[in-house]
Structure formats: C-alpha cells, structure tokens
Amino acid sequence: MARRFLREVTLLSGFEKPDEHGYAALAEVVGEGGTAAVFLDRPYESREGWAWIAGAPLLRMVCENASDATDGRNTSPSNSKPRVVELGSPDSPEMLELTTLTKPGPFGPRTHELGTYLGIRDGNRLAAMAGERLKVDGFTEVSAVCTHPDYLGRGYAALLMSEVMRGIRERGETPFLHVRGDNARAIALYERLRFRIRYSGHFAVLRREISKSR
Fold first, then answer.
1. What stretch of H or E contains 41?
2. 120 and 51 in one domain?
3. DSSP class of residue 211?
4. Are 56 and 203 in contact (CB under 8 A)?
5. How far apart are alpha carbons 131 and 108 in whole angstroms?
6. Per-residue pLDDT tens for 78-105?
7. 54 - beta bridge partners?
8. Residues 143 and 80 in one domain
C-alpha cells in the first residue's frame, strides 16, 4: 500500500490512501526515524507517530500545447547564448550544493539518475540546472529547476527548461511539473513557457518518530 524511492534518489514516497492503513504502510517502508515527502489532496493533519517537517500548497502544471512553448532563445538579455552541458554522477556534489541552497524540492545524490539533467556553468561553477524526475505513461516531469542567486535574471532557468522539454517532446511525451503554490516567481516563468495549472493540492515532508519504548 506504500512505496518510496531509494533514499539516495529522493525522499518522494506515496501510498494508496492517506488513511490509517496508508500511513501504517508508509511507516513500515520508511522505518523509525525515516523521512518521507508525500503529495496530498488536502493539507496534512497531525497524526500520531509522525513529525511534520515542512510543507506547502502544491500545483501541478502541464505544458499540453507544445507548439506554443518558447524554446528559450530569446529569454536572455544578452545576445550570447550560454553553453548547456549534460550533468551526471561526477557533478552530483555540485548539484546537491545548488539544490541545498535554492531548495527546489527533494533532491539526493542519485536523483540525476531519474532522467536527463542539464546545467549552465560559469567557469567551474554550476550556475543553474534543470532535469527530469517522475515519469508516467506519456508524461515526464521537469524538475530541480534552480539558479544560483548570483545568476538570477539571465534567463538560465527558461533556457534549461526549454532544452529539457525539447527532449521530452522528441520522445512523444508531455512535460509537466510541480511547484509550490506560493512561489509566484516560478509560476510566472512556467506560465510564460505555456504550462497551465491542472491540479491543486499539498505536499508534506514527514519524519517517522522513534518509539519512546526504545
């Protein structure tokens, strides 16, 4: 009734229903002291045995009209388009450092194994990145869209997203993403890229409490 990714990949977890049986199954999956990030239809309500770590309203956005999506070529104020590079295992420490700073969502040392991850470097410094995460039939999620604060306003996020989306569409799939409902800056960018809201819910990061009997 519950499943989770490997901890090194992501904290994302799920259950069939957010009821007594679902949370009991989730507790078995994560173990005592374990942490799970879950998507919920309603705000998380306090539950015995679980500690609430973080959470917020969550939007799911889908780019169904791919032909209208910008390719990012005109998003940078400069005429020179930065070079986009593919990221992999050797880049994992820098990717973790960037996501820890910018907090785009759960990200682990092996999250990049879920799909294609692209980045922009300034010398040896990783300035921005974006990649793929969840996959369901016909859809792939654009995720971990983040830019170092020193490089905001240069159009890097739009450029990287457009490149990731191009790869998704070339496979005949539809891009979608998740974003905090209170992240107005990110939502505005996604709307410019022709993403539209298809679902409104919540996410919660929870930790299974350790039994006091131990």
1. none
2. no
3. P
4. yes
5. 13
6. 457 899 999 999 999 999 999 999 999 8
7. 205
8. yes
Angstrom distance (rounded) from CA 124 to CA 135: 31
- Rounded to the nearest 10 degrees, what angle do helices 156-170 and 184-192 cross at? 50
Same structural domain, 45 and 73: no
Structure tokens at 13: 């977890």
3-state secondary structure (DSSP) of residue 71: coil
Angle at 174 between CA 170 and CA 180, to 5 degrees: 130
Tokens 């785009």, residue? 104
In which band, very low, low, confident or very high, does the pLDDT at 67 lie, cut at 50, 70 and 90?
Answer: low
Contact 211, 50 (CB under 8 A): no
Cα 150 to Cα 14: distance, rounded to the nearest angstrom: 35
| Ordered alpha helix ranges (H), the chain | 20-30, 92-102, 156-170, 184-192
Place of tokens 């505005």: 188
Tell me the CATH number at 97.
Answer: 3.40.630.30
**Residue that the structure tokens 């990731």 belong to:** 164
Please, which residues bridge with residue 196 across strands? 62
Phi first, then psi: give them for residue 15, nearest 5 degrees.
-145, 165
Residue 214 lies in a domain: no
- Please write the tens of the pLDDT for every residue from 150-184: 999 999 999 999 999 999 999 999 999 999 999 99
